[in-house]
Amino acid sequence: MVSSKDVAKRAGVSQSTVSRVMNDPLKVSKIARESVLHAMEELNYRPNSVARSLVNKKTKSIALISGPLHNPFFVETTTSIVNSAKQHGYHTNVHFENFGDNMSLYKDVLSHQFDGLILSSIFYKDPIYEELKKLDVHFVMFNRKHQSGGHYVEIDNIAAGRLAAEHLLKLGHRDIAWIGGDLKTSTFHGRHKGYLDAVTEQGIQIPEHFIQVNDTTRVEVHRAIESMLARKQRPTAIFAATDSIAIFILDYLHEKGYSVPDDISLIGMDNIEWSSHHSFQLTTVGHDGPKNLGQLAIEHLMDLMNSEKKEEEINITVEPKVFVRKTTKEL
Predict the structure, then answer these.
(1) C-alpha closest to that of 248 among 284, 280, 295, 288
(2) Nearest to 180 by CA among 240, 267, 244
(3) CA separation for the pair 314, 293 (Å, rounded)
(4) Cβ proximity of 234 and 228 under 8 Å
(5) Both 28 and 176 in a single domain?
(6) Where would I find the H helices in the chain?
(7) Model pLDDT, residue 55
(8) 123 and 22 share a domain?
(9) What's 313's domain CATH number?
(10) Cα–Cα dist 282/254, whole Å
(11) Distances (CA, A) of 135 to 113, 115, 163, 204, 299
């Protein structure tokens, strides 16, 4: 049977170098790494990953707890996280949020072993945070954060909500509605607050039915917009707190014969890839950078996991901007 000692001899390196290539490849020079990988291929060497994890107490895996799969934002960030982790030699166990059942989700995730955790499914005052702190692994939050701090990467949600509302106000809109998810999350709480601050500062009274909170699924978003439009006072513009919600609203409005933006202006939030699709051309607010929040978060998680120094708290808040397209117009 071929051993790591045989691989080391063929590659002309030490056995410890072979071990590092298998367990922490980024700490090995490109030349040495390629020599080892070539020798492994020539000798048809297949390391016993289970045995390695028992010896090193490492699984070479991370756990991802993502927001709901019906939101393309989480599809995009999950793809970035899985791909980036793979480049670092880690497998990703992906878990998606079930609305209203976070504790069951965490119970399942925490029953498995992993070397690091990256998560977006957490409430601002979530009691699970204290349990996560007790784990002997690093964890980074993205998109959402906890009131206690910790490592997180987010967009400035309050500023984003304000930007969305101010964009509509500058276009002459006064009847501006908001549709979003659970205000117990930092994302929706911040986006709602920014919207509310910008509108009320103009002395505008917001009717109760202009603010709709739901579970962000297509069915519930359709119910929310249907309820809103059934009232005598209708909005001339809507701020959807995610692009996913905005697309669901757009679908409903088109089905019912409304013209966007001629009848109702619509602005989303997140600037997902779909928002610039020619079928949507959705005006939205988002992060103007080459890397999404998931990719930024996984890179920082890898830095934490590979660093031997005592790390400082990672608190990254990126600035938002408005991407003006074709779903908003002057009143």
Answers:
(1) 280
(2) 240
(3) 13
(4) yes
(5) no
(6) 4-11, 15-23, 30-43, 49-56, 72-87, 102-109, 128-133, 157-170, 186-200, 218-229, 243-255, 293-306
(7) 44
(8) no
(9) 3.40.50.2300
(10) 14
(11) 10, 10, 38, 48, 20
User: Domain check: are 171 and 280 in the same one?
Assistant: yes
Which pLDDT does position 46 carry in this prediction?
A: 59
- The total number of structural domains in the chain stands at 3
Rounded Cα distance, 139 and 300, in Å:
10
Task: Classify residue 208 as exposed, middle or buried by CB count within 10 Å of its CB (0-12, 13-18, 19+).
Answer: exposed
Low-confidence stretches of the chain (pLDDT < 70) are 1, 24, 26, 46-57, 99-101, 308, 310
Give the C-alpha separation, 277 to 273, whole Å. 7
Q: Are 296 and 241 found together in one domain?
A: no
Q: Is 317 left (phi over 0), alpha (psi -120 to 50) or beta?
A: beta
Evaluate whether 99 touches 155 at the Cβ level (below 8 Å).
Answer: no
- The reported pLDDT for the residue numbered 99 is 63
Rounded Cα gap, residues 248 and 232, in angstroms: 22
> Is there a single domain that holds both residue 161 and residue 262?
yes
Distance CA 132, CA 241 (A): 28
Please, are residues 167 and 322 in contact by the beta-carbon 8 Å criterion?
yes
Tokens of 242: 């995610």
Q: Which amino acid, residue 4?
A: S
- Decide: pTM greater than 0.85: no
90 & 27 share domain: no
- Please give the angle made by the CA atoms of 77, 260 and 273, to the nearest 5 degrees: 15
Q: Are 81 and 141 part of one and the same domain?
A: yes
Q: What is the CATH number of the domain that holds 22?
A: 1.10.260.40
Residues of the domain holding 303: 61-155+290-318
Handedness of CA 130, 132, 136, 137 (dihedral sign): negative
